Amino acid sequence: MSDLNTRHNRAVWFDIPVTDLARACAFYRSVLAIEVSQERVGQFQFGVLAHDQGNGGCLVPTEAPIGDRAGVLLYLNVEGRLRDAVAQVSALGGTVLEPVHPLGPHGYRALILDSEGNRLALHAGSDA
Questions:
Q1: Tell me, what's the pLDDT at 19?
Q2: What stretches of the chain adopt beta strand conformation (E)?
Q3: Is the separation of the CB atoms in 21 and 45 below 8 Å?
Q4: pLDDT tens, position by position, 89-100
Q5: C-alpha to C-alpha distances, 60 to 9, 83, 127, nearest whole angstrom
Q6: Average pLDDT, stretch 76-99?
Q7: What does the pLDDT read at residue 115?
Q8: Is 10 helix (H, G, I), strand (E, B) or coil?
Q9: How far from 126 is each of 4, 87, 111, CA to CA, in Å?
Q10: Sign of CA dihedral 8, 91, 69, 64
């Protein structure tokens, strides 16, 4: 993710759940006319949508039914105040699904339900 994305954009990443990674990669590669690379970290394989000049996302294999709480996951930028943002969630009618945790070299996130029931990720480069 570029510095421009982390400083100026509210939405900085997205995860799209898929049941067939190869099929989904071919779909997004053709529909969006971009490169979609299949990558592996340990045993976890996923597809990354090209994003050299903008916000990016990936295709995440899942066995869970895709829908409401298992649908597209939007990452919102809370750079420099991740723990404060997470602390506000419950106080304002939301729910913390997963506390702050690392994403390897890609920063940190917490998964939440907002006050309306939408599943979102709060993201920052550090866990502060």
A1: 87
A2: 11-18, 36-41, 44-49, 56-61, 73-77, 95-102, 108-113, 119-124
A3: yes
A4: 999 889 999 999
A5: 23, 26, 23
A6: 91
A7: 81
A8: coil
A9: 16, 16, 15
A10: positive
